[in-house]
Amino acid sequence: MTIATNPSRTGTYRPSFTWDAHACLPLDEKTPISLLDDYVAGNIDYVCVNVGMDMNSIPHILRVIAAFRAKIAAHPDKYMQIEKFDDLAIAKSKGLLGVGFDLEGSVMLQDLPEMIPVFAKLGVKQIHFAYNRNNSVAGGCHDVDIPLTDLGAEMVKSVNANGMIMDCSHTGRQSSLDIMRVSSKPVVFSHANPKALGGHERCVDDEQIKACADTGGVIGICGFQRFIKSPNAPEVPDMVRHIKYAVDLVGVDHVGIGLDTMPEVAGCSDFPDGVDRSYYWPVSSGYGPGAGGAAVFDAKKLPALADALIAIGYSTDDVDKIMGENFIRVAKASW
């Protein structure tokens, strides 16, 4: 499905649809929804916003979902909550930023596959099962490498059955390979980078990327400095380098964008319930002082990224796929 270009958007080349597969806003009910305007300025048509991680309690996550939904609904001239696949075209035709939610982890599922349709009804369109550390469902990328548990296999089936995209970002290597084997729908890395270039433990290796492509999935190239391995804040050439590596490895049908932007707002916190940061982001895994920068590629520069891909020889059809059509294909199969 190709969704017609909105002629009101600016940029030298305007992709048919621009999809950012993962973004973060402060997980706080006080967070101003105007932070989404950066995505509008980047000609983004759909953004998937995190609403909770393994370290966040269920009450915390529900407060965030309720607040974000209410604030999106309060601005029908700018944003639209995406509930089903056809909403993407509706939002695009009206010049609105489509917004969906994702969960990073499975602790909030309370070991119940039946929780997945509940979160789906609240607007969660995408989920991965472990945020850096192991849990009862799957392994995390900064922990002992364990297989997907039996409960995890049931969770994958519930994700497939209840209109969510199955994600493997932050997931341990073996668990990610197991998820891709179990899933009957395409599996994505919504925000990840090739380990061959990024080198970080949170990046994914060639076998994982190929397994993702074999499901019909997409690797969303992440703009986080530490994973993209850039000396300064990531710029267009850094993104191009990672996109090109993934395209050369698995083909243009399996590469997209998942920037992982993380704006900070005074007075808002991701962790009002308290969290041991050193557990989830261990110094031994490349976090903390001296571990490199934490800047993220600016979403407003995505039009320049599309132009740069054209400039190095990608066709407009290929750029359309990378900038959004590939994730649209996955959404159509999953939602």
TrEMBL record:
It comes from the Bacteria. It is an enzyme of class 3 (hydrolase). Gene3D superfamilies: Metal-dependent hydrolases (3.20.20.140). One of its GO terms (molecular function) is dipeptidase activity. Keywords: Dipeptidase, Hydrolase, Protease. Its EC number is 3.4.13.-. This is Membrane dipeptidase.
